[in-house]
Amino acid sequence: MPHRSFTVEEANALIPRLDGVLEEIADARTVVERCQAGIRLLKTLWGKDVEDTQNPDFEEYDTHCRALEESAQLIERLINEEIQDRGLRFPQGGLQYGLVDFPTTYHGRWVYLCWRKGEPQIMYWHEIDAGYGGRTPLSPGHAAAMGRHDDPALEDDSMLDF
To answer: Distance between terminal CA atoms of the chain?
Structure first.
């Protein structure tokens, strides 16, 4: 998939959908954690015997296992389809803290527009190697120049780490 350079307007247009996606992921992560705890408890009580269909707790164990698998698949699908396939990325800690980076161009180089769940719009950007700690407030001048006139992909896109 080719790299995509987002304008601030394009990134802002995706925020309502991303907000919903991150909620879905958080809900599914809660199910995963609950199921893992249930499975651990049942395995502590029964060991491998919990996997025997004749075990009195097998149905509960099996329900936890199926819900765990379904939730893990949902998380994977949402990340693939709603984040990665759109050309977005989770930075380190992004899934846990609701951070999403939008690749963009700025004066001939790749940078990231940076959004955190709860922010009403894109308000920050950072250099590729700067991360969350290097977030810089997005000024109108930055916004006007990002993702519009220059395309470093034609020169060198090796700095992007997808």
So the answer is: 10
Encoded tokens for 159 = 């700095």
User: Using CB atoms within 10 A of its CB, is residue 67 exposed (0-12), middle (13-18) or buried (19+)?
Assistant: middle
Q: How far is CA 32 from CA 17, 40, 80, 162, in A?
A: 22, 12, 18, 26
pTM over 0.90: no
Q: Got the DSSP string for 66-78?
A: HHHHHHHHHHHHH
Residue 118 carries which DSSP code? T
How does residue 133 score in pLDDT terms, banded at 50, 70 and 90? confident
CA 66 to the chain's CA centroid: 23
Q: Which of 127, 124, 87, 122 has the alpha carbon at shortest distance from 107?
A: 127
